[in-house]
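Problem 3 from the worked examples.
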Amino acid sequence: MATDAQRIIWVISLLRSTSQDEDKMTPEEPNAERKGLLCGLQSYKLKDVFTWQLFKAIAMGQGLSAAICGTAVTSQYLATDFQLNTPMLQSFLNYSLLCLTYTTILICRRGDGNILQILKKKWWKYFLLGLTDVQANYTVVKAYQYTTLTSIQLLDCFVIPVLMVLSWFFLKTRFRPVHYVAVTVCLVGVGTMVGADLLAGRDQGSSANILLGDGLVLISASLYAVSNVCQEYTVKNLSRVEFLGMVGLFGTLISGIQMAILEHDAVANIQWNWKLALLLAGFALCMYILYSCMPVVVRMTSATAVNLSLLTADLFSLFFGLFLFHYSFSVLYIVSLVAILVGFVMFNAVPTLTADPAPAPAPEEDGHGYQGSVFEVTSTEPVSVEGGEDGDRDCGPKRLTWRQPMSNQLASGEERGTRL
């Protein structure tokens, strides 16, 4: 008869081999980890790519593009029909709406979610975030006074590579080759749209100081990228309401001060009427919808994916311009739209990776933590499986049993034995 020590050694070796066999990946397992090692789309079936989550992300992303289109159309009417060029006033209206809703929610909260607790710990961070967001909006509007629309449309795409770099360093996001291909496809779509504009002779804007204007666009794109990365981190780790409430609070203060300094004469000379007020309200409402809904889509996907989806906003503006401003139609607009949507689908079909390991579970009182498929030997004697519990399994000719420990057993200290 084998000794007790030999029995224990045999049980340990058996359990280790069983654990290693279960950890091996079989071709039949549709495991997310197995998919995570793939760098392309070749192993994905259509049902794995075109999921309800993807269609929802596309629909919500195009809804955001429609909101940006609304801001562009109302701004066009304000500039052409009323000669109104007050970007800080328009931003102030948006931030004020955010402040009235989301900042008020933070005021009414209790505990750590209260606005006083947030300001006490992180006021300077949200101040810098609000300053970045306000200046991003201001510089891109200012760029229209110095450079052409074509330059703005092309250079504004600079936000995407900056976003990917910032996500790599600060969010620890690791992109795969298919993601870079998807971004390239989207940028080709933007180039097609700009080419259609040039062929139609619609190179609007000023050329007073192209170098300065292009520089302002690049600065704006970089500031937007910083704001979007901060947004992604906040909505995925803290809360959407906190992000919008703080941006609304500091955005209102900063844009209000900047408006008083830079636009006090222009605001004082406005000839108010109901059409002008309606256009300003429409602009503020579109911006409010954009700011309120964008964190939801960012949480579903990522800041980079959302910005890829927003590339269609200029196309929507052009489609509206066909009816409102009598633009000429080009089939290249359809090609551009399809290319951007294909690139967006490619980007979201394969998940990104993260460089940070998953956090380990909290240790138990005896210093050992429960980690996944950890086995527990509750006895060194052979145990028969007849009449045993459902979780027992036959482990060979000696008819030993092994079981996975339940979390409540580990927490309460019941049936503690040797964990492998």
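Problem 4, a separate protein:
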Amino acid sequence: MEEEKVAIIGSGLIGRSWAMLFASAGMRVRLFDTQKTQVDSALQDIQEQLENLQQIGMLRGALAAQEQLALISGGDTVENCIKGAIHVQECIPENLELKKVVWSAIDSFVSIAKPNVTLASSTSCIVPSKFSEELQNRSRVFVAHPVNPPYYVPLVELVPAPWTDPDVMVRARALMERIGQSPVTLTKEMPGFALNRIQYAILNECWNLVNDGVLTVAEVDTVMTDGLGPRYAFMGPLETAHLNAEGMLNYCERYSKTIHDVSKTFSPVPEMSGPSAEAVHKQLSEKVPLEKLAERRQWRDKMLTALAKLKMQMRKKE
């Protein structure tokens, strides 16, 4: 079988995660960044992560850590990375003007990629039409938005521009499934995609409950960690509702009026600035001081690893 190659433009945390995911499926990965030292640092970090994952039994794929690492290398130019690629994954900062420049460069080298190459951005908030409209190969462009950290949280949102070829979206979904991710395909682009729209709705109400003096920051977080969170870790809100009655129609019969009436009492969307932001920050800093953020992130990733391992074991038993 012919070796498959993936180009990753941007070697930050998301670019590194994508590199590991594609390598886990046996694909050769070429990683590009404007600064070679960034790529060198990324490769060192990837090696440490792969070796650690192998030690704790969470390494994906059939290849050993060193075999996967051997599939990942740096590229000197965007052209060198894209040549012969079946897929390009852009992972640069959330700056629209910068993305336009980078996508113009990617677009100019599509002819030397594989004929059916797919072109994706990892952006979390910029709809694809904003940076792909002027591209010659815009029908191949879409968003593949991962959740951080992608190795432990497998969701990928696939978002087309109005001109994206439907066949491109089909092939993109198949590729994401092949590397072990869980893709959802939006039928059209919209601000915030799906995950952030849901996340922002939750965050807005959490903010208002604190700002209105109903709960403290710690108590709001407890509502999620010891209430909604455990259920939502393995079952979505709609299936949860389906099980909380005799099916969804029965749930709506029982609770739709209550949900509607309560929802009408929600406060306006908060601005999350000024004194309210300072008050929330103060409470959070008492729990996790700024100098402890890195340590807390490591703890978070450790917990996500344990959860991912548990879910993997449960799926095997199903």
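Solution to problem 4. The chain has a mean pLDDT of 96. The radius of gyration is 22 Å.
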